[in-house]
Amino acid sequence: MKLTASTTKTLKNGVKIPILGLGVYKAPKEETEHIVYTALKQGYRHVDTAQFYGNEREVGLAIARFLKDTPEFTRSDVFYTTKVSPTNHGYEQAKKSILESLEKVKEIGYVDLFLIHNPMAEPEQRLGTWRALQEFYEEGKIKAIGVSNYSIKHLEELLNWKELKVEPMVNQYELNPWLLREDLCAFCESKGIIIEAFSPLTRGFRMKDPLLQKVIEKSYPGKSPAQILIRWSLQKGFIPLPKSSNEQRLRANLESLDFEISDEDMKTLTHENDYFVSNPNFDPIKNCP
């Protein structure tokens, strides 16, 4: 099947999520609206932000402007994700922050996916945050809910919670050919949890990897390391969320949908014994109690 930026996966509640997203972490606030608008015009249909990024408002404005300027598209054609900040854990604080996030994007009416950004809190606070998300989901103001940076232990804590009404639909965490997290991926798949891959380009640290370069020279001349890494995530069944503020690179990242990596090259690219986290000071999956 030919992949496009509008190709979707289906969450366990039936919501459709595009298979490639644009991440806007560290996108300058004053540039975010232009970056997102440009990406949407190029063909992106999925944008991932967070309270912590400080640019929810700008992403919402970009989506609203795109929909106004291109009336052939409707709100359901663009998927918007945000996340509850680690500083807003706990029922009351999370509820307040979710209301603020909804207000910031009032022009687009609702949030498609709201995640817990990471589990860095006490269990009672984590579960309180989920309680708040459940309530907004049941009211229809959020179309889907999930988590980010959750380990198997954190997922089991949530799935076994006696007050659980809505199971997590997504887990977003760092993945790349040198960071497989096979046990976590298998667990998520067994529970019907869609996997999103942030930092699929290793924040640039592995772009000049000799083996990656060799594979490109042998089989994919003209393709960039970024395109190979994005395509690797797609073929692993993940939803990659590459980020860029450069118009040419935004377009090039979309072109990851236009080719396939052979089974042999996928095996060569996949480093089963590595554990490369692009920010070693931030690995809640491994370090959060």
Topology (SSEs and partners):
Layout: E1 8-10, E2 16-18, E3 22-23, H1 29-42, E4 46-48, H2 56-69, E5 79-84, H3 91-104, E6 113-116, H4 123-138, E7 145-148, H5 152-159, E8 170-174, H6 182-190, E9 194-198, H7 210-219, H8 225-235, E10 239-241, H9 247-254, H10 263-269, H11 284-287
Parallel strand pairs: 3-4, 4-5, 5-6, 6-7, 7-8, 8-9, 9-10
Antiparallel strand pairs: 1-2
How would you sum up this structure in a few lines?
This protein has 289 residues and is α/β, with parallel strands linked by helices. 40% of the residues lie in helices and 13% in strands. The longest helix has 16 residues, at 123-138.
Could you describe the 3D structure shown?
Keywords: Oxidoreductase. InterPro entries: AKR (IPR020471), Aldo/ket_reductase_CS (IPR018170), NAD(P)_OxRdtase_dom_sf (IPR036812), NADP_OxRdtase_dom (IPR023210). This is LANO_0D02366g1_1. One of its GO terms (molecular function) is oxidoreductase activity, acting on the CH-OH group of donors, NAD or NADP as acceptor. It contains eleven helices and ten strands. It has 289 residues and is an alpha/beta fold. The strands form two sheets. It has an eight-stranded parallel sheet with strand order 3-4-5-6-7-8-9-10. It has a two-stranded antiparallel sheet with strand order 1-2. It is globular and about 55 Å long. It has a single domain, classed as NADP-dependent oxidoreductase domain (TIM Barrel, Alpha-Beta Barrel), CATH 3.20.20. The termini are far apart. Helix 1 runs parallel beside helix 2.
